[in-house]
Design goal:
By secondary structure, this protein is mostly helical. It has one domain. It contains two helices and no strands. Helix 1 packs antiparallel against helix 2.
């Protein structure tokens, strides 16, 4: 009977340790998720501000032109820089999302290694 009770106590301690490890892993993952999401939000806000400023500047230039050719040139230059900026930003955001996924899952890798 005493042996069974000792076994039961050991199982209970083991379960408590597993639960503690799971909570630690979840908290680390949550921290990485929060940090990555914040970085993405800051990046999107900065890009939005810059895109708005660039669009406003291009519109002001467009209002100041005197000929159709110059208006087309201003519009073409704006479209080109806006497209290039968007592609660069999309690439940067893709990298941030990839890093977010990696960092969020990283704490679970050690947990999975323990279960093997």
């Amino acid at each position: 009977m005493v042996k069974n009770f000792d076994d039961l106590q050991q199982v209970s301690k083991d379960l408590q340790q597993v639960s503690k490890d799971n909570v630690d892993v979840a908290l680390k993952s949550w921290g990485a998720l929060s940090k990555g999401t914040q970085a993405i939000a800051i990046e999107v806000a900065d890009y939005s501000k810059k895109a708005f400023e660039d669009g406003t500047a291009a519109l002001e230039k467009l209002f100041g032109v005197k000929s159709l050719e110059k208006a087309i040139e201003v519009q073409a230059n704006y479209a080109k820089t806006a497209y290039e900026g968007f592609v660069a930003e999309a690439t940067k955001l893709g990298e941030l999302y990839t890093d977010l996924a990696k960092e969020t899952c990283k704490p679970f890798e050690s947990l999975m290694a323990k279960t093997r």
